[in-house]
């Protein structure tokens, strides 16, 4: 049966555990950048400026 293999002299416990605050910070930054980028792309390609310039549609 095939099992997990690790480099000679290492075990899975030698990897440091994932800490909450660094993971939370990376998550916040990646989501913020993603939402900003998608908002810019949506505003450009969906022509929000033209849409919102009509008071009856805004």
Can you walk me through this structure?
53% of the residues lie in helices and 0% in strands. It has 58 residues and is mainly α. It contains 2 helices and no strands. The mean pLDDT is 84. The chain starts with 19 loop residues before the first helix and ends in a 6-residue tail after the last helix. The chain has a domain at 19-52. The chain has helices at 20-45, 48-52.
How far apart are the first and last residues' alpha carbons, in Å? Answer: 64 Å
Summarize the helix and strand pattern as letters. HH
Mean of residue pLDDT values: 84
Quote the beta fraction: under 5%
The outline comes out as: elongated
Alpha carbon gyration radius: 23 Å
The helix/strand class is mainly alpha
Helix content: 40-55%
Instruction: Count helical runs.
Output: 2
**SS elements, strand count:** 0
- pLDDT under 50 segments (min length 5)? none
Biggest beta-sheet profile: none
How is this structure best summarized?
This protein is mostly helical and 58 residues long. The protein is 53% helix and 0% strand. It has a domain at 19-52.
Q: What keyword list fits this structure?
A:
mainly alpha; single chain; 58 residues
How is this fold's topology laid out?
Layout: H1 20-45, H2 48-52
